[in-house]
Write a structure and sequence with these properties.
By secondary structure, this protein is of the alpha+beta class. Helix content is about 20%, strand content about 35%. The chain has 3 domains: about 90 residues, Pseudouridine synthase; about 130 residues, Pseudouridine synthase, CATH 3.30.2350; about 60 residues, Roll (Archaeosine Trna-guanine Transglycosylase, Chain: A, domain 4). It has 8 helices and 19 strands. Helix 7 crosses helix 8.
Length: about 300
């Protein structure tokens, strides 16, 4: 018998396991929670593990907030070998002796902190003429790629031994960590490829509060639901603004509000009657609705503004 799916709103901080695509992980979690609607906030490669926020119901409306957010990874790279894909999935196409020491590695990492240029790998989902690059490389074709500017906010050596190094990196949207590993190896003169990747944070969300697939499977439904976080968990970096009932109705009807508050311009988390109601955009002291929860929009649809 088919299971009954339910309306469920909120966010699960999921620790994606190895060799599971982000979409497969999403569908497994959605089925386990019997949620009628679910999405995630940005893919992780099958060979990468770590933080994958899963959004249920209303949370899917606000999931794009994390697409542009900074992300933090724990990465492992092997020096001395260059592969066809930049990671352990590819064939070794060049080998070099590794003679660098820890001081040289630390100096190399410093070279990549700040705004840098990266050449996107052919084995990526970036599109060229409507098709992802990986489709071309599967056919043995290569296409011209343009370098992209990304920002490395922090790059720290965790360990170094022999031909293997582990580093932590906090980076902007669009950064390819495997390309970073390759570029570090090229800078050291011995080449490198990525052999492990774990996402540990997205904006203010941390892997420390995530739950694994193995743990979810042995929980009772009540225990699993206790790990569902509020929708506004997705917006930790947006300043908050409280609205009264009239302001909430006006905003829900598409009107702008004059806001006399010491808040930075840009996107805000909005609250009314003690609950999260959506996201607004503040500019020049005027607040415009950007995306509101369905319940607020529905309640205001037939309301008479006084």
């Amino acid at each position: 018998m088919a299971r009954d799916y339910r309306a469920l709103d909120g966010v699960l901080l999921f620790d994606k396991p190895l060799e599971l695509s982000s979409n497969t992980a999403l569908q497994k979690v959605r089925h386990l929670f019997q949620a009628d609607k679910a999405g995630h906030t940005g893919t992780l490669d099958p060979l990468a593990t770590g933080l994958l926020p899963v959004c249920f119901g209303e949370a899917t409306k606000f999931s794009t907030a994390l697409l542009d957010a900074d992300k933090t990874y724990l990465a492992k790279a092997r020096l001395g070998q260059v592969t066809s894909t930049g990671d352990a999935e590819g064939e070794v196409i060049a080998s070099h002796e590794v003679t660098v020491d820890e001081a040289q590695v630390r100096a190399a990492l410093l070279h990549f902190v700040g705004e840098i240029e990266q050449l996107p790998p052919m084995h990526s989902a970036i599109k060229f003429q409507g098709k992802p690059l990986y489709e071309y490389i599967r056919k043995g074709e290569r296409v011209a790629r343009e370098k992209r500017r990304v920002t490395i906010h922090a790059l720290t050596l965790v360990s170094f031994s022999g031909d293997e190094l582990e580093f932590s990196v906090r980076c902007s949207k669009g950064t390819y960590v495997r390309t970073l590993a390759e570029d570090i190896g090229a800078h050291l003169g011995c080449g490198a490829h990525l052999i492990g990747l774990r996402r540990t944070a997205i904006a203010g969300l941390s892997l420390d509060h995530a739950v694994s697939w193995a743990a979810l499977q042995v929980m009772s439904p009540v225990e699993r639901d206790s790990h569902i976080l509020p929708v506004d968990t997705l917006l930790p970096e947006y300043p908050a603004l409280q609205l009264d009932e009239v302001q909430t109705r006006r905003l829900a009807q598409g009107q702008q509000l004059t806001v006399d508050a010491d808040l930075p311009e840009g996107k805000l988390r909005l609250y009314g009657a003690g609950r999260f109601i959506g996201v607004g955009n503040l500019k020049g002291g005027r607040l415009s609705p950007e995306r509101l929860s369905a319940s607020v929009a529905k309640s205001a649809a037939n309301a008479d503004l006084t």
